[in-house]
Amino acid sequence: MSKTEAVSSSWLRRSELVVALGSVCTAILLINYYIKIPGITQLASYLEEWVIVVMDFGLILGFASIAQRNARNMTKRRGEWWLDSVALLVATVTILSNLIGGRNHPIFTFINVNLRGVGTPTMLSMHGFFCISAALRAFKFKSLQITVALGAMMLIMLYNVPLGEVIWPGIAPVAEWLIDYGFSPGSRALLMTTSVGAIFLGFRVLTGMEREAYGIRREKR
What we know:
mainly alpha
């Protein structure tokens, strides 16, 4: 390799190139969102099409990585390899049925309705129980604030299930008051603070101060 090729290769590997490319693309999309300039609008539309292409390639690479890992576990009979085989089989059948007949293919419709449609609320329900258990373990009745928060959480949970009316017939007005005057203002305040934080984080990513967003680790000094 010549000296010129080595310099060019090292320049392409520099993290500043990735940060600059991401910052320029982000700035173009932001400018097009607030100000409609003919040249910028056309370039932003072109970038949005490339986003779809990159996302498709990401899905393909993700499926290839999962298939490789599951196939390795199946061949070595490592861990719960039979679950990996079922997952790989379902994923392969879903992709092939969609490629052959589109979304109206009977096999794809069956998997989407009977597996994905049922599995999603099941996973959410399981996560709900885990979150409740973790919250009860994390928040101990050590102070008045935590006791009030846990009491309000339990009241709202009982209000959303039929068992709550059986245990306490007058739970509805109390729970509705908590939702209207406690949950709604708190969720709006949390959304506002999260939005402000996202704006500042986006600015740091745009200016290259947060390089971890591009997969670049900061070098230790």
